[in-house]
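Anyone up for a design puzzle?
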């Protein structure tokens, strides 16, 4: 597989390989410091970014490459040049592309016409690099065998919890997992190993919906009381940025069960792992 455009394109073996390598990069960031020597990686972002931008630039640098950060108005795309033509230009100058944008179709088209690896670093449909960082954090906490554990996402169905229930249930039927959707946060939290949430207002959401959303989602806020219903070894996760006092209480986000800073740290290790393996053609994929 040349690109990582959607999380579901990764096989279980791909995920294990990527996480194993990311764990090695966590322990020794410069262990492959010449992997991208004399090579460049385009980091194209049409959305504001803190973790993704820092993680991407650092990952490239730790592999010995040169990161080239580009914002939407830096390119001719805004003046009518096609994605296909832009992809061909990128391919002539760079060795990989990391892209953070809105439409999934734009990333798919970039992958189609590029001859170099394209990594989806967030679209309106998917966030593969965040999900890999999340899973590595979970694996560090509970080990590789998570059979029987409950993972709970609370709140709005945004880029971290797309309502792709049918697809998820098809995958679950093969893996042995169970997918449930409920409006009862207390029942969901009972004996859970992970409570995960995200902001209630995502980038691009109309401000006019804010008050209605806050009112509707208030029962799904992660509080100390809700966290007390989870398992003794449970953890709290959030992809950040967080709105303290809104989707999560400050006492939770700064509390002993919070692993959000380790989770954020693994944005770098997993992007580094992706670049390392994709540029070497070592991801098989399920396409």
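Challenge accepted. My sequence:
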């Amino acid at each position: 597989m040349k690109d990582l455009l959607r999380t579901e394109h990764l096989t279980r073996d791909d995920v294990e390989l990527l996480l194993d390598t990311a764990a090695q990069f966590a322990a020794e960031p410069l262990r492959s410091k010449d992997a991208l020597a004399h090579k460049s990686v385009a980091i194209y972002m049409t959305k504001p970014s803190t973790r993704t931008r820092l993680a991407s630039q650092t990952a490239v640098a730790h592999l010995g490459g040169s990161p080239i950060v580009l914002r939407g108005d830096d390119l001719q795309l805004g003046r009518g040049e096609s994605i296909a033509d832009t992809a061909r230009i990128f391919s002539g100058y760079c060795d990989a592309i990391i892209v953070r944008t809105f439409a999934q179709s734009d990333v798919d088209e970039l992958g189609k016409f590029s001859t170099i690896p394209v990594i989806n670093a967030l679209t309106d449909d998917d966030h593969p690099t965040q999900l890999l960082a999340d899973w590595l954090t979970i694996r560090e906490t509970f080990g590789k065998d998570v059979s029987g554990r409950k993972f709970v996402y609370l709140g709005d169905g945004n880029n971290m919890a797309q309502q792709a229930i049918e697809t998820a249930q098809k995958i679950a039927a093969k893996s042995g997992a169970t997918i449930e959707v409920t409006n009862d946060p207390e029942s969901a939290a009972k004996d859970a190993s992970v409570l995960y949430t995200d902001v209630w207002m995502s980038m691009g959401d109309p401000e006019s919906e804010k008050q209605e959303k806050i009112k509707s989602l208030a029962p799904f806020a992660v509080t100390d009381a809700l966290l007390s219903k989870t398992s003794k070894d449970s953890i709290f996760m959030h992809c950040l940025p967080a709105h303290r006092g809104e989707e999560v209480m400050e006492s939770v986000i700064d509390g002993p069960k919070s692993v959000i800073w380790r989770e954020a740290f693994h944005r770098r290790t997993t992007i580094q792992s992706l670049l390392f393996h994709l540029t070497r053609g070592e991801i098989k994929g399920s396409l």
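A detail worth pointing out: The CA atoms of residues 8 and 167 lie 9 Å apart.
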